[in-house]
Design a protein that fits this description.
Layout lengths: L1 E10 L6 E6 L8 E5 L8 E3 L6 E6 L8 E9 L4
Antiparallel strand pairs: 1-4, 1-6, 2-3, 2-5
C-alpha cells in the first residue's frame, strides 16, 4: 500500500509558509516528496513510493493570513 494525496485547495504565503511532504515516518531530505508554497492547482497528486506512511510538516512565520490548504488522502495499491 502507498499513500496518495490530492490537493483540493492550497493557498499560503509564498515567501514564508511551507508544507513539506515526506515518504515514510522520518523527515530527512532524501525522503522529501515535495515542498509546497504559494498557490497549487486543485487535483494535483503526490504519492509515497517506499512506504504506507506520509509525514506532513508545516512551517510559517505567523505573519499574514491566507486560506491554507485542504487535501484528501487515499490508500492505493501498486507500484510507482
Amino acid at each position: 500500500m502507498r499513500v496518495l494525496v490530492t490537493v483540493q485547495s492550497f493557498l499560503t504565503e509564498k515567501c514564508c509558509d511551507r508544507l513539506y511532504l515526506y515518504d515514510g515516518n522520518v523527515t530527512e531530505n532524501k525522503d522529501l516528496i515535495i515542498e509546497l508554497s504559494g498557490r497549487r492547482e486543485p487535483n494535483e497528486n503526490y504519492t509515497t513510493f517506499n512506504s504506507n506512511i506520509m509525514v506532513l510538516v508545516f512551517t510559517s512565520d505567523s505573519a499574514g493570513e491566507y486560506e491554507g490548504f485542504n487535501f484528501t488522502f487515499d490508500a492505493i495499491d501498486g507500484e510507482k
